[in-house]
Amino acid sequence: MPPLSHHIRRFMLTRTVRILMECNCGARLRLYHFKNR
User: Fold this and answer.
1) 3-state per-residue secondary structure call for 1-37
2) 12-17 contact pairs (CB < 8 A, 24+)
3) CA angle 17, 18, 23 (to 5 degrees)
4) What is the chain's alpha carbon radius of gyration, rounded to the nearest angstrom?
5) What pLDDT, on the 0 to 100 scale, is given for residue 1?
6) pLDDT reported for residue 13
7) What distance in Å separates the CA atoms of residue 22 and residue 37, rounded to the nearest whole number?
8) CA nearest 18: which of 29, 6, 26?
9) Backbone angles phi and psi of 2, in degrees to 5
10) pTM of the full predicted structure?
11) Digits of tens for pLDDT over the chain (37 positions)?
12) What is the model's pLDDT at position 12?
């Protein structure tokens, strides 16, 4: 049985990375739309 904390840490890390990537993409899209106005 693998340690649960390792799974939780990995899950949180991937989730954080995904949220950061989504925020980055959203900011870039917003900047793009704002620039094209």
Assistant:
1) CCCHHHHHHHHHHHHHHHHHHHHHHHHHHHHHHHHHC
2) none
3) 100
4) 16
5) 62
6) 95
7) 23
8) 26
9) -70, 150
10) 0.52
11) 678 898 999 999 999 999 999 888 888 888 888 888 7
12) 94
Provide the token pair at 17.
């990375």
Token pair of 37, please? 């106005």
Which amino acid is present at 32? Y
Tokens of 9: 């840490």
Where do we find the tokens 């049985």?
Answer: 1
